[in-house]
Design a protein that fits this description.
The chain is an alpha+beta fold. It has four domains: 140 residues, Methyltransferase, Cobalt-precorrin-4 Transmethylase, Domain 2, CATH 3.30.950; 64 residues, no CATH class; 165 residues, 2-Layer Sandwich (Heat Shock Protein 90), CATH 3.30.565; 85 residues, Winged helix-like DNA-binding domain superfamily/Winged helix DNA-binding domain (Arc Repressor Mutant, subunit A). Helix content is 39%, strand content 18%. The strands form six sheets. Strands 12-11-13-14-16-15 form a six-stranded mixed beta sheet, covered by helices on one side. A four-stranded mixed beta sheet has the order 1-2-5-4. The protein has a two-stranded antiparallel sheet with strand order 3-6. The chain is elongated.
Length: 478
């Protein structure tokens, strides 16, 4: 036992451990115990200095009684930690061990139920806002946010055509299928969309969830002082995966020529790891949070993927690395699995770490920043943006051209589209000059073809991706 506690004392403060020299900082200790109980459990060790010197506590029996009284008087609902006294180097330490509580959210009596709830982020205790407090309650009750009904809406508020195309059906899915996927749920005797359904395929999603979009940025250098390029992605959530990857590929290309794109070695970023991280962020984001979208930041030396929401109660970063998984959004996760975007629960994070090791890349980093999760993928070699006057402008134009080409191919990957439909899919109100130039360029490269080749100007004319273009998709290049 003493060896176990000695190893414990060698650890840094973190999500499940905090050290205190004595009982003088009572408010800080109570915050830590509340945060442990609400988040993933943990140990408060008393009698150890900040520099890990074992000081012990004087009169440990009376100090234990005092600690128990402080907890009883300060924390609501009642919290009963396991308190032990251990002796190391002839000095007695108090250890209060708290487990993830089924009575959460606990809060400080002095601050009340709305402002006295704390959660553990790294080695700090953070005050929970009202959305997170509601999330803590839901996890106790076994209710997922994305399974909840939206009684003010109806099936007409869902893009059923897009749902069908996502699961590769030719016709809009019926109510039975939508119920099976929990995109429709029963509420007071009628079927209404679930929150997950609107997040995935809401026709006017922004009216209910204004923060469900993705912000992508390419920064010059290794910080956010100088942004080179950015886009905002409002696609249906499953389709956002390809749009995000297109943005990353655009800035990873060593050339804009499609003859180069067909060679796998043009990619200087780990596409497999990044795709897995993007999907993880979209599936596990806490969409009940307000204030910020999912963010993708591309720097010279790394790519950061960040989503709202901390780890689920009971989970730690160590658990994630070991493949332990808890699903925050079962409706969203199930639909992603139906689309074969998710393979086996819990395998994604270990696979990303394994791939990084095999590729000789820095070990990915997972961290809780504020009320958000951040996954950092380091690059093997820096990708710098060169600024060389006129040549730099040509580089920018080539990148814009390549981005448009990629977006058109991605839009046509599911079904043939007219030029107007392509324009709409790319978020343009009308056919832009870039699109007018791109369509013949893609046909000439034999990546797109007409559906009515004998009548180029037919009003029924659409653009279909070719086998050559599809090959890019099949190779995971789109």
């Amino acid at each position: 036992m003493s060896n176990f506690f000695r190893r414990l004392l060698e650890q840094p403060e973190g999500k499940t451990i905090e050290f205190k020299q004595d009982l003088s900082s009572s408010k800080s200790m109570m915050k830590a115990l509340v945060a442990f109980a609400n988040t993933a459990g943990g140990r408060l060790i008393i009698g150890v200095s900040d520099d890990r010197q074992i000081l012990g506590v004087e009169d440990p029996l009376s100090q234990e009684e005092r600690l128990c009284s402080m907890i009883a008087d300060s924390i609501v609902p009642r919290l009963v930690p396991n308190i032990e006294m251990i002796t190391i180097e002839d000095k007695t330490l108090l250890i209060a061990e708290v487990f993830l509580s089924s009575s959460r959210p606990h809060f400080l009596r002095s601050k009340g139920a709305e402002t006295g709830v704390y959660v553990r982020l790294g080695s700090t205790n953070r005050q929970a806002d009202l959305e997170l407090i509601a999330e803590l309650r839901r996890t106790v009750e076994g209710v997922a946010f994305d399974e909840m009904p939206m009684p003010e809406l109806s099936i007409d508020d869902l893009d059923t055509k897009a749902i069908a195309q996502s699961v590769r059906e030719k016709y809009p899915v019926d109510k039975t299928e939508l119920q099976t996927l929990k995109l429709l749920v029963s509420h007071q005797g009628r079927l209404v969309p679930s929150k997950g359904a609107i997040i995935l395929f809401g026709r006017e999603r922004n009216l209910s969830f204004s923060d469900v979009w993705v912000q992508c940025g390419r920064f010059t250098g290794t910080d956010k002082s100088d942004i080179f390029d950015h886009i905002e992605i409002y696609d249906h959530l499953p389709l956002a995966v390809d749009s995000i990857m297109l943005f990353l590929k655009k800035h990873a290309m060593r050339g804009a020529d499609f003859s180069e794109i067909r060679r796998k070695d043009v990619w200087s970023i780990p596409l497999g790891i990044l795709r897995e991280a993007v999907i993880n962020a979209l599936v596990h984001a806490d969409y009940s949070q307000r204030g910020a979208p999912i963010r993708i930041a591309f720097f010279d030396d790394r790519i950061e993927i960040e989503n709202p929401g901390i780890l689920m109660p009971g989970m730690t970063i160590k658990d994630m690395k070991q493949g332990i998984s808890r699903i925050r959004n079962p409706v969203i996760a199930r639909f992603f699995r139906e689309m074969n975007l998710i393979e086996q629960w819990g395998t994604g994070v270990p696979r990303m770490f394994k791939q990084a090791q095999e590729l000789g890349l820095p070990e990915p980093q997972i961290m809780e920043i504020g009320m958000r999760m951040r996954f950092v993928v380091g690059l093997g070699e820096p990708i710098q943006i060169e600024h060389t006057g006129k040549k730099d402008q040509a580089q920018v134009e080539a990148q814009v051209e390549a981005q448009v080409d990629f977006q058109i191919l991605a839009a046509c990957a599911n079904a043939p589209l007219s030029s107007a439909e392509i324009s709409t899919a790319l978020g343009h109100k009308q056919l832009s000059g870039n699109l007018r130039k791109a369509l013949p360029r893609l046909r000439q490269a034999e990546l797109l073809e007409f559906t009515v080749p004998d009548k180029p100007k037919s009003r029924l004319q659409k653009y279909r991706i070719t086998a050559k273009g599809r090959q890019l998709t099949d190779n995971g290049m789109l």
